[in-house]
């Protein structure tokens, strides 16, 4: 048997790992490929649950750990982390010698990995390119990774067009749908009693699943927004709120510290957990009445679960939305009004239709991705990419209309 193709997956967060899980599992089980994993970022930090052990607990071997977190909750700290990550990734890639590097999304850990792979002439496959999130620095990271990658797996036709508009060859841009929807299709459902056992009491109604991340590309104060959410929740005295930890963006630690304070203030009503894990998170979504915050899961996964979403602030500005997503400003009155509307019978009925712009033709997304990863010629991907020019009329210089 010839040597199996080495496919290296980079993961830096619990959420990203959950999205990559079934694709990684399919590669692990393949006779044509060998799975390699590099864990980095928040996976290696006790403050974020040291979730690299979750990866190992799922039966995967972690081939390398690249520590890139710095003791700074600022934008400059993130810039330094990217530099450290690029150095560590270069050393890991040189040692592991993969045929292809697979990255997902738009975080700075992904940018660090893509920079190292690009300079090392290791072809990059990018999942979830072409999306827009104007309120986050991830917007720039995502499009930068697209230009470094040679193979693309996008979540909708609109996103495919955007990647081609960035100059990528159309035959290398595959619309497979959102990878997270396969997690829903394969979910092993728990009963509500399992969730109640985890939080130590019965669920009150409404039950709310909350995740809030910093809006790093705008002036939205993360702690003030969490306080605004708390003020809105004061008007729902019977509600149970299950809050998950923020990510490793600038301001994320301050959000988690404030949520721990609020857990004491809302004793018996708000429960904070750094990470529920993919299965725990999706099962919590199954049993909740509302998804609240600004996580992409509220826009991508929640609609396919039939759950209303209240999306707060600017972090997800520009991303495609299902009819079941309500946007509101990051202040208490707007959040309260949006929650009231989302919990109304008419809106819950609308959400129950499960309309989702990210739905693929089939939910076996990982099979489509791995089929392409195993069939492309890595040597061909190493060659000059070229630039695919799209024909369209541009407005005159200086005009915005």
Number of domains: 2
Broad CATH class of the largest domain: Alpha Beta
CATH fold description of the largest domain: Rossmann fold
| Strand proportion | 5-15%
Note the overall shape. globular
Report the mean per-residue pLDDT as an integer. 93
Query: How many helical stretches?
Result: 16
Uncertain runs with pLDDT below 50, 5 residues or more? none
Q: At the fourth CATH level, what is the homologous superfamily of the largest domain?
A: Glycogen Phosphorylase B
**Strand and helix order:** EHEHEHEHEHEHEHHEHEHEHEHEEHHHH
> How many beta-strand elements?
13
What this model shows, in words?
The chain folds into 2 domains: 5-177 and 360-382, Glycogen Phosphorylase B (Rossmann fold), CATH 3.40.50; 189-351, Rossmann fold (3-Layer(aba) Sandwich). It has helices spanning 14-29, 52-57, 75-96, 108-119, 138-148, 157-165, 180-185, 192-199, 222-233, 252-265, 277-287, 297-300, 332-342, 345-351, 365-375, 378-382, and strands at residues 5-11, 33-40, 64-66, 100-104, 124-127, 151-154, 173-175, 207-211, 240-244, 270-273, 290-293, 309-312, 325-328. Helix 9 (222-233) runs parallel beside helix 10 and helix 9 crosses helix 13. The chain has 401 residues and is of the alpha/beta class. The model has no long low-confidence stretch (mean pLDDT 93). Strand 9, helix 10 and strand 10 (270-273) form a beta-alpha-beta unit. The strands form 2 sheets. Strands 3-2-1-4-5-6-7 form a 7-stranded parallel beta sheet, with helices on both faces. A 6-stranded parallel beta sheet has the order 10-9-8-11-12-13, with helices on both faces. The protein is globular.
């Amino acid at each position: 048997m010839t040597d199996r193709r080495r496919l290296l997956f980079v993961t830096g967060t619990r959420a990203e790992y959950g999205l990559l899980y079934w694709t990684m599992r399919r590669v692990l089980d393949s006779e044509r490929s060998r799975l390699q994993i590099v864990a980095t970022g928040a996976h290696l930090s006790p403050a974020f649950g040291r979730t690299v052990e979750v990866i190992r607990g799922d039966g995967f071997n972690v081939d390398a750990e690249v520590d890139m977190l710095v003791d700074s909750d600022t934008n400059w700290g993130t810039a330094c982390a990217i530099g450290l990550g690029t150095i560590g990734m270069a050393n890991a890639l040189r040692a592991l010698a993969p045929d292809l590097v697979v990255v997902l999304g738009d975080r700075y850990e992904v940018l660090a990995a893509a920079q190292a792979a690009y300079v090392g002439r290791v072809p990059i496959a990018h999942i979830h390119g072409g999306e827009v999130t104007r309120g986050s620095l991830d917007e720039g990271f995502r499009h930068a990774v697209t230009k470094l990658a040679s193979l693309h797996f996008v979540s909708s036709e609109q996103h495919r067009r955007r990647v081609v508009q960035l100059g990528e060859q159309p035959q290398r841009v595959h619309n497979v749908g959102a990878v997270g929807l396969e997690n829903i299709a394969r979910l092993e459902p728990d009963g509500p009693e399992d969730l109640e056992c985890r939080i130590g009491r019965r669920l009150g109604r409404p039950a709310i699943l909350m995740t809030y991340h910093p809006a790093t590309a705008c002036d939205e104060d993360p702690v003030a927004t969490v306080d605004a959410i708390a003020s809105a929740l004061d008007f729902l005295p019977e509600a149970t709120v299950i809050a998950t930890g923020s990510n490793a963006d600038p301001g994320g630690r301050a959000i988690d510290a404030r949520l721990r304070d609020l857990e004491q203030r809302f004793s018996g009503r708000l429960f904070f957990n750094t990470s529920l894990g993919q299965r725990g998170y999706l099962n919590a979504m199954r049993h909740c009445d509302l998804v609240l915050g600004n996580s992409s899961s509220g826009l991508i996964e929640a609609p396919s679960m039939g759950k209303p979403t209240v999306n707060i602030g600017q972090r997800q500005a520009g991303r495609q939305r299902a009819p079941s997503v309500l946007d509101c400003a990051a202040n208490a009155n707007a959040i309260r009004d949006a929650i009231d509307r989302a919990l109304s019978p008419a809106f819950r009925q609308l959400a129950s239709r499960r309309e989702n712009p990210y739905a693929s033709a089939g939910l076996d997304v990982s099979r489509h991705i791995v089929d392409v990863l195993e069939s492309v010629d890595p040597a061909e991907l190493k060659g000059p990419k070229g630039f695919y020019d799209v024909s369209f009329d541009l407005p005159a210089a200086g005009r915005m209309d």
